[in-house]
Amino acid sequence: MTTTVDLAPSPTPPSEPRAPRRLSPGLQPSDRIFHGGATVIGMVVLALTGAIGLFLGYQSIPTLHTYGLHFFTETQWLPELNKIGIAAVLVGTVEVALVAMVVSFPLALMLALFITDYAPKRIKSWLISTVDLMAAVPSIIYGLWGFYLLQPHAINVARFLSQYVGWFPVFHVDTDPNAAVWQQSRYTSSAFIAGLAVAMMAIPLACAIMRGVFDQAPLGEREAAMALGGTRFGVARTVVLPFAKGGVIGGTMLALGRALGETAAVLIIISPAYDIKPRILEAGTQTTSALIAGNFGNATKSQLSALLTAGFVLFVITLGVNSIAAVFIRRSRSGAGTEI
Amino acid sequence: MKVSLDGIGFPGGAARPDAGAGARAAGSAPAGLDALGVCAWFGRTQVLDDVNLSVTPASVTALIGPSGCGKSTFLRILNRMHESTEGAQMAGEVFLNGEDVYGPGHRLTDVRKQIGMVFQKPNPFPSMSIADNVTAGLGLTNTKVSRSDRVDLIEECLTRAGLWNEVKDRLERPGAALSGGQQQRLCIARSLAVRPKVLLMDEPCSALDPTSTRRIEDTIAELQEDVTIVIVTHNMQQATRVSQRAAFFLAEPGRPGGIIEQGDTVDLFEHPRDERTSDYVNGRFG
Questions:
Q1: Per-10-residue mean pLDDT for chain A, 340 residues long?
Q2: Residues B198, B200, B204, CA angle at the centre, nearest 5°?
């Protein structure tokens, strides 16, 4: 008894499900080299950023181990007395950055809009290079400018604000603004003045991003708005700003990231004060980066670890802000819903 | 200058008080449009030379001709869109009801409001709903309307553009979600909402399928009693279907473009006087 065996192979094994074919792009050698090079460089950037984060994180372990959550709630920075915390410093950082944003946002927005939609061509290229030049000025110069040139005038603004809106805690200064001989020094070295200097650095960054996105507003929609009898402002309001919303938010947040980390200018202007206070016009504040820059020179090993921990916290905050900014910018550039 | 020209009396120089369905297109009447000696340059390149065209109120005029002969440029000169292009210059005069739109005392925005434009590529505002798209021109020109007038205006303009029945249930949906042909009719409705006296159409159907093209042509036929229409088209059948008058543009190689022949559409297509017109309308070139 033998069973017949069908030796002919079945053309398609029925058990195997259909799978998508693997496609090879068949790259040219030049493409391959470029592809490889770009990949390596991209990876190096990622690796460097990751390494910085890891380094800071690793260095913060001893500090966080010693102080625990108190590190985030303690306001004083007195390593000699073993009192170390970044509560006041973080508040100061945010205050300086917010002042910078409040000042720079409208300026950057209007500047970008002027460049893309209003400026005649000749002025346009001049303006673009001037604004780019603003970004190239070292921050220490802005610090000196803020301290020597801006501060003597800005304290008058600060006094004016505290005189008229001083009832609002943010603008209160703990001195009599109406005194015949007013205490000028109470208004100097404040978060407000540091914020003004930082704003000068934030403007070119925010403006460059906004300008790029404004320029991408579709010509067809611009012309549609013009052909309906729209003014330039009408076109900006109807077409450009709705289109660029994501870019405006993204650019602002990138500038915020810059403002949070600004060091040299802030260090020159502020006088260190370690208390949580909303009074931005009043002398004395401290920011994370200024704290590090001002103290690492004569720090012991454990103090350095504490400073790096503060740096780690700033790194995480800035990374978060920039990541959110990147999401907004990408959304805006992809122009979802604008392709017709 | 203006007075003497009025005295000469252009064919379309004065608005006909009885023109159009005045009740429907309240506040506007179709106007005549006359171009005199229009030249245009982009940088140093002259693209149009001495173009004269007279457009009768409440009619459809087709501008035909091969690509690159300056038809669109000429159209954009009529409502002063030309000058928004970098490096663009022009010479000559354009009279709307006998008044030079380039003359002193004429605001650019007012001219564009009175002479509307529909573009080749449908361009509704993507961030706005269908209803908001229709009334976008009111906001752009700072025209205040009451809420009930606004609702009426939306219905009226969408009806005139032949889109009302298709979108009346979804007026708050985004305009960009419509099909290409519907978007183009939405753009027509949007132009109508600012009560133009003249509507310029720059190849409005070239990006559309035949059915949508037919709908737009029907819309043009219905609109022409309320608003004077000038349409640029590459489609000669379309020109014969929609227009009463036509002008044939041509640019000889290396020379600026201009009108070779103009007249009644039927005459232009059936008894062209110029050999080049004859060659073009019979499909021998272009």
A1: 56 71 85 94 95 93 88 87 88 93 95 92 91 89 93 92 89 83 87 93 92 90 93 90 88 90 90 87 90 87 89 91 83 49
A2: 140
Q: Which of B112, B119, B125 has its CB closest to that of A239?
A: B125
Q: Chain B neighbours among A 128-187 (CB < 8 Å)?
A: none
The whole-angstrom separation of Cα B31 and Cα B19 is: 9
CA–CA distance, A339 with A246 (Å, rounded to integer): 16
- Complex ipTM, two decimals? 0.85
Residues 213-242 of A with CB under 8 A from B: 218, 220-221, 223-231, 234-235, 238-239, 242
Closest CA to B64 of B239, B205, B209: B239
Per-residue burial over B32-45, b if 16 or more Cβ lie within 10 Å, else e, is bbbbbebbbbeeee
Give how far Cα B188 sits from Cα of A331, B195, B280, Å: 30, 11, 29
Q: How far does A338 lie from chain B, in Å, by closest CA? A: 6
A243 exposure class (CB count in 10 Å sphere: 0-12, 13-18, 19+): buried
**Integer-rounded Cα radius of gyration of chain B:** 19
Contact A227 B176 (CB under 8 A): no
With a cut of 70, which residues of chain B have pLDDT below it? 1-28, 286
Contact A227 B117 (CB under 8 A): yes
The dihedral through the CA atoms of B72, B76, B82, B88 has a sign that is positive
Tokens of A272: 């260190």
d(CA A126, CA B273): 54
Residue B30, token pair as written in the block: 């179709």
Q: Are A226 and A298 in contact (CB under 8 A)?
A: no
B183 contact residues in A (CB cutoff 8 A): 340
Three-state SS sequence of B20-84: CCCCCCCCCCCCCEEEEEEEEEECCEEEEEEEEEEECCCCEEEEECCCCCCHHHHHHHHCCCHHH
Q: Cβ of A337 under 8 Å from any chain B Cβ? A: yes
Both tokens of B282, joined, read: 């019979």
Chain A residue with CA closest to B120: the answer is A220
Length of chain B: 286
Q: What is the enclosing helix (H) or strand (E) of B176?
A: none
* Dist CA B234 CA B38 (whole Å): 22
Question: From the CA of B238, how many Å to the nearest CA of chain A?
Answer: 24
The answer to whether the CB atoms of A228 and B127 lie below 8 A apart is: no
Measured distance CA(A134)–CA(A142) in Å, rounded: 10
Identify the H or E element spanning B263: strand B258-264
